[in-house]
Amino acid sequence: MVFTRLGLSSTNLIPLRQEIVRKFILIERKLLPTPSNFIIVSWIRRKDYHLLTVGLTTYSSDDRFQAVHLQHSEDWTLQIKYVQTRDAGLYECQVSSHPPTSIFIQLNVVEARAEISGPSEKYLKPGSGLRLQCRVVQSTEPPLYVFWYHNNRMINYDLDQGINVTTELPVKISTLTISSAATRHSGNYSCVPSNAQPASAYVHILNGTYFLIKFIDTNGRYFYANCLL
Length: 229
Prior knowledge:
Structural class: mainly beta
Distance between the termini: 74 Å
Number of helices: 0
Order of helices and strands: EEEEEEEEEEEEEEEEEEEEE
Strand order of the largest sheet: 2-10-9-4-5-6
Largest sheet: 6 strands, mixed
Strand content: over 45%
């Protein structure tokens, strides 16, 4: 008989990282004690029926896969280093009991990304307030930091330029505000979290009258057009 000892859910969301060091995925299973010393645990990738490990021996040519088992322990772990999107899929933990017993795990690999609310291009008149809110989505943990860039310059600490950045790491939100935007504030703004793909928005600070026109297409979907007079 096999039962589960998981610190993770049966469907695991694993973030892809841009850093060199990525977290290992640990998929654990626990076996009931047995008087036999000949029980063997194997891991199989089901999408191509590729035998990954048998006992502590790795049969895959991909050395990112490894079986981990401590002596006298009842835990068997399939460890995957440097997770990639192609690692997603169904995995089978098979035990050589009589008859053989298997447990299946669906592994989902998702890529964390940043999102800046609102349209990707924003139009303002000089003296208007600017507020850009960035949220990290599809991340299993908060970022260590969120940096904002104006064009290619990091601006988190540019209070003397009228720029204020407030970051709430536990809720994965960072907000950039400018109380009175000037033409020098025009340009590309990028939100760059430590653990996610960045997001960008382009801000135009222009003289004149600005209109945001809302349209509805034949399918009932909304879209917007910008008009500056």
